Amino acid sequence: MDESTNTEVSPVPSDGQSSEANRSAYWRANLKIMMGLLVIWFSVSFGCGILFVDALNEIQFFGWQLGFWFSQQGAIYVFVILIFAYVALMNRLDRRFGLLKEDD
Amino acid sequence: MSATLLTYLFVALTFGVYIAIALWSRSDSTNEFYVAGGGVHPIANGAATAADWMSAASFLSMAGIIAFEGADGARYLMGWTGGYVLLAFLLAPYLRRFGKFTVPDFVGDRYYSQTARLVAVICVIFISFTYIAGQMRGVGIVFSRFLEVQIEVGVIIGMAIVFFYAVLGGMKGITYTQVAQYCVLIFAYLVPAIYVSILLTGVPLPMLGFGSTMADGSGVYLLDKLDGLTAELGMAAFTEGRKSTVDMFFIVAALMAGTAGLPHVIVRFFTVPDMRAARVSAGYALVFIALLYTTAPAVAAFSRINLIQSVNDASYSTLPEWFSKWEDSGLLSWVDKNQDGRLQYRGGAAMDPVKPIFTEGRGGSGERLVSNELTASENELYIDRDIIVLASPEIAQLPNWVIALMAAGGLAAALSTAAGLLLVISSAVSHDLIKNTLAKNVSERQELRYARISAAVAIFIAGLFGIYPPGFVAEVVAFAFGLAAASFFPAIVLGIFSTRVSKEGAIAGMLTGIGFTASYIVYFKFIDPANNIADAWWFGISPEGIGTLGMLLNFAVTLSVSRFTQAPPDDVQSMVLMIREPSRGD
Hints:
The structure holds 2 protein chains of 2 kinds.
Chain A: H1 2-5, H2 20-51, H3 53-56, E1 60-61, E2 64-65, H4 66-96
Chain B: H1 3-24, H2 30-35, H3 42-53, H4 56-69, H5 74-98, H6 103-110, H7 114-147, H8 151-201, H9 206-209, H10 222-232, H11 245-260, H12 263-266, H13 275-311, H14 321-328, E1 332-334, E2 351-352, E3 358-362, E4 368-370, E5 373-374, E6 381-383, H15 388-395, H16 400-438, H17 444-467, H18 472-486, H19 488-497, H20 503-527, H21 546-564, H22 570-579
Antiparallel strand pairs in B: 1-6, 2-5, 3-4
Helix pairs in contact in B: 1-8, 1-16, 3-8, 3-13, 3-16, 4-13, 4-16, 5-11, 5-13, 6-7, 7-8, 7-16, 7-17, 7-18, 8-13, 8-16, 8-17, 10-13, 11-18, 11-21, 13-15, 15-16, 16-17, 18-20, 18-21, 19-20, 19-21, 20-21
């Protein structure tokens, strides 16, 4: 997902000025990352934990029924991973657009 | 040493630490008082956010609710953690980049309107006060049960401690005490959970023990054992949900959006150095929260098993001491329906109304008598779900020091949340109301004095709520999330993600969202409570989940009104563009 954003606008290195086009390219890339991660957020919680919980409960996962596990444990683990994934992807984006300070 | 003596020791020790931190971190400017100078490390802010967010309800009540509701309890687990994903993606970084002190600051500036600012101030104060009353009640419960003092005395001690570090230290004092309180509360929560997990399953990590086999050599999975026990006693199976899918969906969505829109959580992200720190800090906050939230369902399952095994068919005269202590505090009750002197713990309510109304007398076995009608079910036991977490170390017969730890942990959870809420209230009054609305020319020193005075007044009112709890509070707290989801959340998100949304749109949207949600709740909870059943609900959505529909209405109204009204002024539009990216590092 991150690679595809590469092709849209080649980012201007930090010359201190952010052009209009550059700015909206940055914003679109951010939205794209965010939407991708929100799809996962929705599928583990509302999907696996609520909408398909009964179907998943047919599957045994160690001592849990799988749907029950997602709603009481799994979704929370995925949420944590999602935020750190967003942090990493955004830091990369910031660096590409010259928005990251040297000491970061 | 006795459990009571150890409890005094632990509570005194932790309170001493909080006071020492308060003395060390005094605030001397409004910047320090409101946002701790904006220099808090992301990890420290993460721990402080976790303590700020996890209240007496998370610590004392949540595992108890899950213990009795089983699968349906997942709505709190997912709802109250999934909101952090929304916070990290949609709100925290941009509000930090905006760079002022409060949530009404953003609403007022983005919607270039004093009316919007005032509406925000009123919502902030209303949400925070309903919330704080619950914290003070938690403080009272812990004190009265473990230290055997009057609830009033407990609340006053709690108020004095919070007064000390919130009024002196402002956000700076609160932040560092919250870090300490997080350590205390998570330690207090995990230690007994680990203990019980080892006893029941032999696995030290409760998150894994929960899905393991019993340690009694039977080879049966713990949850299967629990499902078996509940079925045998005519109770609903632990792993089976009873709420409808549509209701679960709407409740979880309302809790998530409401969490992301709660002012005392948002304002914590104003204290970190920059936008990037805000993102990563939300991640740390969720790690710290997840530690408790993934343990809670395990604690719930463990204590349900231990509870059934220790009380069912036990003779009243041989019950351990914890039973009569909780009975004395009115949170447990037993009615000997079949006069055999033994406790029959079965499905269904034991009495009508559900909560016991005690009389002065004692029954044949020495139990406290009640004046309730007895139901036809075989069940003879009433157990308040708020006691599960506090009682589980005693039920599992853990050592005294573990039991004493619970009291210190419960107090840390309640006090840290109370302090965060007090700060939001005091800054709404001194900054948004006095500085930005009524008296714009106050000096910084005067503003700081007003901030301290309003914090002190807010503590006093919160204490009164704790001592004389207004009956409606418990009902309203559960709905604060729905109201926050239907009002603030769309206004702030659209304020960031659209340059076109106008003040008319935002105000109309907030009024629609909050008006619709509040009317639905008031109708079913207060006007026609007898009709509060799934068949009467719109689309099967309970009052707890209606905030989600209110939120969707808010989005729809805001967007359509904005289409037909004038676009925001240029400086507002460029402000929105500005907060979307970090400041350029040279």
